[in-house]
């Protein structure tokens, strides 16, 4: 068997170069000045202090607000969808879940672009409104358009984990709860929902992570001036060229995500222990 | 029954929300006018535009060739690593699995700028090669995650038996181990291919010198309405959906075909175990 242990070595080296070193470089850039020149770097915390400026705080707050709104809406719509899918036979369920998964595989960029033709001022929704004799509504370049884009991108990531944990629930538990005198609402809330929390948490984390790091959706549906964390990073790296400040923001973004994952794991453990 | 009708209705509305924009894009790619609202008549003029535009054809070439190369490299690297991993000591195993999870959990944009800084620190010219390396970097973890469970579940005695019977380690690998991992490897290949073919964020940050893939060219064209993008989207979506259908259908066919052979393998296992007990 010794022959095969050696097989991990190429990947070990590869992953150090291509996964670990880039992360260390981001951290290094975030605490230095001197731009892309590694020779005259100086250590500083200015990049992090700069983030306290009101414009940047506003970007963070806006990202959080939009992220939480879309995650909340996804949770409600997605939970109901996942729950209703379990009403069908296993074969039909597999087919329905396949239909939920397909959009996940189609490029976000293309799916977001597709929304433009529906939402734009002379787009399809407005021409339907016009036919019905109503005033056209400006939807493009608003928070509404961005949230709609986010929801359509994130919903599958909410539905799949919730559906997985709903499927694992033993059906006799419902019967037991009902036999013991629980009404349908109590049965749902204290048995079904409670047992599906791992899936719910997974879904919340996945959608939250994707929503706060996106830059394609706000750029396409919110317009060039629309700034979320992802757009700020893109701007700093591609247009402005301030890699140090951009790295500092990425470090904070990665840190937020790390905290979110740790929280989820802890809650997951606690609910597991209670059972 | 009433319950099911209500459920079906809700599910239908959700699916409409998922698929309406996609269907509209596909429909309007056959529109003869530039309008996004009025469908005038059926025409293939946007497809003609698509195939005569050298920029777009170059981008298609870049996307397809990178997806094939990245899939090939990451499948070999990922499979070899997964086999090694299943035989490694626990500490090493945990370290590699955790490192492997970083690119999967990290937001694309962080992975992207990390690689961007890496390539410029190494003074590499940004372009085709950097894009390929980046694609291998984010595809390999997915190959490992799909092959490793199969490698772990494999009976270690079989490879040993092959070598005891005179096979070289390489022969044991190709004739005994790889065939047993087949399903995981196929899943890995298709996952890597779709991930690579679909990628925008990472490619966008690590490319340069005018090398663009399909996503980058679409991103640059969205600044004004251009039905050629609809035609391109339609083709890309078709490629992805066909690949997905293959993902779901191939294992089914394989399972049917292998029904007979896997039975005999189980039989052999049982005999082996009985012999051990004796």
Give the SSE map.
The complex is a heterodimer of chains A (275) and B (278).
Chain A: H1 2-5, H2 9-30, E1 32-33, E2 42-43, H3 46-50, H4 54-85, H5 90-105, H6 108-119, H7 124-131, H8 143-168, H9 171-179, H10 184-195, H11 197-213, H12 216-222, H13 229-240, H14 243-274
Antiparallel strand pairs in A: 1-2
Helix pairs in contact in A: 2-14, 4-8, 4-11, 5-8, 6-12, 8-11, 8-12, 9-10, 11-14, 13-14
Chain B: H1 2-28, H2 45-52, H3 54-87, H4 90-105, H5 108-121, H6 128-152, H7 156-164, H8 169-180, H9 182-198, H10 201-206, H11 214-221, H12 227-277
Task: Explain what the structure shows.
The complex is a heterodimer of chains A (275) and B (278). The mean pLDDT of chain A is 87. Chain A has one domain (54-274): MetI-like (MetI-like fold). Chain A contains 14 helices and two strands; from the N terminus they run H-H-E-E-H-H-H-H-H-H-H-H-H-H-H-H. By secondary structure, chain A is an all-alpha fold. Chain A has helices spanning 2-5, 9-30, 46-50, 54-85, 90-105, 108-119, 124-131, 143-168, 171-179, 184-195, 197-213, 216-222, 229-240, 243-274; strands spanning 32-33, 42-43. The longest helix of chain A is centred in the N-terminal third of the chain and has 32 residues, at 54-85. Chain A is 78% helix and 1% strand. Chain B contains twelve helices and no strands.
Instruction: Sketch the topology of chain B as an H/E string, one letter per element.
Output: HHHHHHHHHHHH
Biggest pleated sheet of chain A: 2 strands, antiparallel
Kindly report the CATH topology of chain A. MetI-like fold
Distance between the termini of chain A: 41 Å
Rg measurement of chain A, Å: 23 Å
Whole-number mean pLDDT of chain A = 87
Q: Please bin the fraction of helical residues of chain B.
A: over 70%
